[in-house]
Specification:
The complex is a heterodimer of chains A (133) and B (242).
Chain A: E1 4-9, H1 22-53, H2 55-65, H3 68-96, H4 104-130
Helix pairs in contact in A: 1-2, 1-3, 3-4
Chain B: E1 9-18, E2 28-37, H1 42-53, E3 72-75, E4 78-81, E5 96-99, E6 106-108, E7 111-112, H2 115-123, H3 142-146, H4 165-169, H5 176-186, H6 194-201, H7 215-219, H8 226-239
Helix pairs in contact in B: 2-5, 5-6, 5-8
The chains are: A mainly alpha (133), B alpha+beta (242).
């Protein structure tokens, strides 16, 4: 009786993606939003510094931001900052309290809920402003 | 005898990531169909493949009962011990993926070079350090013993360290297992060199590299709350041992 049989080798080389839970994906989101915020701050420092070189140029750059595409970008920026801020508080509690590690999953869902509530308050007003209702 | 119900068996497909350093330039996936019983473990499937189908399949195992810590591997994308993973707990309607743990140099098939892992372990002085002469027993209350009970369970299988995204990209990071074993002595009331270990773990590649992804806590086959232990070491670095 044969208990097993082998078949031809597959061509896929890469390993599987590690299947983490809430903790790993919160870290992935935290890092992506952190990098996004970093690049925003880089541009923000540069465009604000323009005012020292030429106020006209500064005004021209600011005017170019007042487009629907940039408006949606601002929505994404606020979404990233709000998540990063709330999850940052969660990480502080995990690192510096005795009970934080045992409630990290629940706290992650609290972060998502608080993020959703904040965005529900912000997004309609902001989009109405951007698209000039 | 005929009325004794036969133990139910079924065919399970295992897709194993193979690598032979003498013939292959890159690892590749290979399928095996194995007849299994629900009481079998992933390790039994590897045995059947190695003994009956393909003797070149290489993996480590010693005790085969979750104590020696030899057979940590990535099963369906998560680090587990092959000897503690029951077939009935897996979704066998789909193939079962088995590959080596991640972040340590791949040597052959499911075997990795564990030396960087043990080097980090040795660096945190994983032994009792006391100035008392060994003339009589060290007195310790049950409460003092309970303080570090969780981290005495470690079997050094590396499932936690190789589930850590920080360790995958920064092999210099001490990793969860080394910190767990430092915790075991830092919070031992009989040990006198906690501060030495805290200084070691306060370095650039120490506890502050931990980003609390909790992969280690979920991977530990002994159920150690690894991230909690790391957080306690972080707090001890900041506030002292208490």
């Amino acid at each position: 009786m044969t208990t097993a049989q082998a078949s031809a080798a597959k061509t896929r080389i890469a390993g599987t993606l590690y299947r983490g839970h809430e903790g790993m994906w919160s870290w992935v989101l935290h890092r992506i939003t952190g990098i996004a915020i970093y690049f925003f701050l880089l541009v923000h420092v540069l465009d604000t510094a323009l005012v020292r070189i030429s106020p006209e140029l500064y005004n021209a750059v600011m005017a170019s931001y007042k487009t629907p595409v940039m408006g949606l970008g601002e929505l994404g920026l606020v979404a990233a900052i709000v998540f990063h801020a709330y999850n940052g508080l969660r990480i502080i509690l995990v690192d510096l309290t005795g009970w934080g590690t045992r409630h990290q999953k629940a706290m992650f869902y609290v972060v998502l809920a608080m993020w959703a509530i904040t965005m529900l308050g912000f997004a309609p007003r902001h989009l109405a402003h951007v698209f000039g209702a | 005898m005929s009325d004794i119900a036969e133990v139910q068996s079924f065919t399970v497909t295992f897709i194993i990531r193979r690598f032979n350093p003498e013939t292959d330039t890159e690892p590749y996936w290979q399928d095996f169909d194995v007849q299994m019983y629900s009481t079998d473990r992933v390790l039994d499937a590897l045995h059947k493949i190695k003994w009956d189908v393909d003797g070149t399949l290489s993996f480590r195992r010693s005790c085969a009962h979750g104590i020696c810590g030899s057979d940590a591997m990535r099963i369906n994308g998560r680090n587990r011990l092959a000897c503690k993973t029951l077939i009935k707990d897996l979704d066998i309607s789909k193939p079962v993926y088995v590959e080596a743990i991640k972040g340590l140099p791949l040597e052959k098939d499911l075997i990795v070079d564990m030396e960087p892992f043990f080097a980090a372990y040795r660096e945190i002085n994983p032994f009792l350090q006391t100035s008392a002469k060994p003339e009589k027993e060290h007195i310790q209350s049950p409460e003092q013993r309970a303080r570090f009970d969780d981290t005495t369970k470690c079997i050094l299988c590396a499932a936690c360290t190789t589930s850590c995204p920080v360790f995958w990209t920064d092999g210099q990071y001490f990793g969860p297992a080394a910190i767990v074993n430092a915790h075991r002595f830092i919070f031992d009331s009989r040990d006198e060199e906690a501060q030495v270990r805290l200084d070691i773990l306060n370095s650039k590649e120490g506890v502050w590299r931990c980003r609390t992804t909790f992969n280690c806590s979920e991977a530990c086959p002994r159920g150690i709350e690894v991230t909690k232990a790391i957080a306690e070491v972080k707090q001890a670095v900041l506030r002292g041992v208490r």
